[in-house]
Specification:
about 60 residues; single chain; globular; mainly beta; about 0% helix; about 45% strand
């Protein structure tokens, strides 16, 4: 299972239940969002992307 952990990002979730997180972690497993949390996610085998100072939101991939 391929995992990518995006850490310390401004997360714009577009989910009214979660809201936006000024700083949070997002775990992607096999191309799908598996977890979103304001605290650290334990994923020892994940590729880690430090996203401090960056915005992460769903549905936008290489949008430029």
């Amino acid at each position: 299972m391929a995992q990518i952990l995006i850490r310390n990002a401004l997360l714009l979730t577009l989910d009214p239940r979660l809201g936006d997180l000024a700083r949070g972690d997002l775990l992607v497993e096999d191309g799908h969002i598996a977890a979103v949390t304001p605290s650290a996610i334990a994923a020892p085998h994940a590729e880690v992307v430090e996203a401090d100072g960056h915005i992460v939101m769903p549905r936008f991939v290489n949008d430029h």
